[in-house]
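Example (one chain per record):
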Amino acid sequence: MKPIREYIEENMPRFKAEWGSLVEIPSVSCQPEHKADMVRCAERWKELLLAAGAQRAEIMPTEGNPMVYAEYNLTSITPSPQGEGNVYFPTVLVYAHYDVMPVEPLEEWKSDPWTLTERDGRLYARGADDDKGQAMIQAKAFEYMVKAKELRCNVKFIFEGEEEIGSPSLDKFLREHKDLLKCDIILVSDTSMIGKDTPSITTGLRGLAYWQIEVTGPNRDLHSGHFGGAVANPINTLCKMLAQVVDEQGRITIPHFYDKVVPLSAAEREMISNIPFSLEKYMAAIGVNAVEGETGYNTLERNSCRPSFDICGIWGGYTGEGSKTVLPSKAFAKVSCRLVANQDHKEISKAFVEYMQQLAPDSVHVTVTPMHGGQGYLCPIDLPEYKAAEAGFTEAFGKKPIAARRGGSIPIISTFEEVLGVKTILMGFGLEQNAIHSPNESFDIEVFRCGIEAVVGFYRNL
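Predicted structure:
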């Protein structure tokens, strides 16, 4: 069998053609008119996984878009050297998604978003990265390992068609097919690296809790001249309440909020300090003159490893053109917390609702409605599977990857851990310049090559 790099180069035209056959299917999960395209894309993935070496592949129905399931069961074909049953091999479950975001605004695309187009060392199309390109990395690494007869683990694939709309069918599917999806580790390529020359493995994701607040004062809007200063203004009251949620040290004041927060270790803080980062460029890029946040932590720690509280929207009273001297009857806000590992979003949500009621004066009525949430995730960097991924990155990119927590949320990762009871390794190969969800989404061809090699390294070192 040829070395992996030679195999990739020799087969790259075929890889691109197969990649193109996926992106030409407009599998936009949020638009009902593409329902048939979702099935077509699932069927195409079934064909590709079988061609890559899967022994079994099928389309499995859900209440929404179908799941693609495939497997390669090494245990069933490898007899024990002693002739007593079969050898036990660990099982890797590879997760990806085949749905994509809409392409609008279409006029901003430089080429057809549904045709894989190559220019400047990159391939452009909707889904070129998220997640058809990254899923293709997994499929081609698996293909090589099967053909080279190097696999020493069972491999299962589960590709869903609803990730871009919040995976509404995934939780039920996992619970109903828990035995089928039983595994020792989950492998996901749907995240990003710090940079092409700075490979990294995502080791942490923040959770989320989100609420809407309604503050009601008088039973109707009042004349501010007749009632101002004598009746509580719901907007003023709401602002006062929310201003108390974060103190002068940048710490959140919700009772027991930090009880389960996992502190940063010295080793983690050292790794974060090795991430290339310019505070000046960071501020210039978003047009601010200074940053702020929790005392005792730097910007990279604050936006990935520490919890946060934000007012996402606030409204009430008169906001039209001109002036209207009104004391409003109601005020509203949408607020959220980004949470870190071990913080339970349901516990935090309940605590916040109770806290708002405590802060509310008798002069108003406050209703807090939890909207949605998700758990954070933390992957220990001493896991054998993490070490295998680390070795794969090192071999492919020529340098050891940085372990990096991310500030965003991927609720399905915590769902996997809750239902299947195993950890996830986030071997993502995206770059910021890939412009996922935006016009002219793309994927760097050299990173694609290195990604395949890194996943092959993962399997070899597992």
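Caption: The radius of gyration is 25 Å.
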